[in-house]
Design a protein that fits this description.
Elements: E1 2-7, H1 14-23, E2 28-30, H2 31-41, H3 46-61, H4 65-78, E3 83-89, H5 92-102, E4 106-112, H6 115-125, H7 138-148, H8 150-155, E5 159-162, H9 167-180
Parallel strand pairs: 1-3, 1-4, 2-3, 4-5
Helix pairs in contact: 1-9, 2-3, 4-5
Length: 187
């Protein structure tokens, strides 16, 4: 059993890593989906209210709230699969929740990319509302994520994958990680 947790700032490549895992038949639990569902339950737009609801969930239910809501989904996937990828860890408290639940079977992987490259990717993706459209700027998103404890979570990573090359090169790294484990990744 292996639970691969992915952590990284917006636009670093977390969703792309999840896409590669899914293409390989590895189930993906996306923590952001928990927040998007809560947005809809509260009658709010996930594109513009994601950050507000993420913060509210943590304030209302504690800093590990989103991880705790994700645990049953991960455990259900592990009943039929050897590996599960968890997309979108945001804090050291969430890392600790997963380490407590899965012990040595939990592998935390940081995806890293420079600010300008991340900004370009987010513009292309177009999933989130920009600051001009009532959403958050990337600077504000980074600050919010880091405020949750993401910097501490990234420091806890067992492995860092730089995502500064081509999409194909990054996809190869993720396939290697899933197939061969962290030992297969060139550092």
């Amino acid at each position: 059993m292996t639970v691969i947790g992915i952590v990284g700032l917006p636009g670093s490549g977390k969703s792309e890593a999840a896409n590669v895992a899914a293409e390989m038949g590895v189930p993906v639990v996306t923590m952001g989906d928990v927040i998007r569902e809560e947005c809809r339950d509260r009658g709010l737009d996930p594109a513009s209210d994601h950050g507000t609801v993420a913060k509210a969930l943590r304030e209302e239910n504690g800093p590990a709230a989103i991880a705790e809501r994700s645990l049953p989904m991960i455990e259900a996937e592990l009943e039929a699969n050897d590996t599960v990828l968890v997309d979108g860890i945001r804090s050291d408290v969430e890392v600790e929740a997963f380490e407590s639940a899965f012990g040595d079977a939990f592998l935390l992987v940081e995806i890293d990319a420079p600010f300008e490259l991340r900004a370009d990717r987010l513009d292309i993706r177009g999933r989130d509302a920009s600051a001009d459209d009532g959403g958050e700027s990337l600077e504000d998103r980074d600050a919010r994520e880091l405020g949750f404890g993401m910097g501490e979570a990234m420091e806890m990573a067992d492995l860092t994958i730089e995502n500064t090359e081509t999409l194909a090169a990054f996809q190869r790294k993720i396939r290697t990680l899933i197939r061969d484990g962290p030992e297969g990744i060139d550092q």
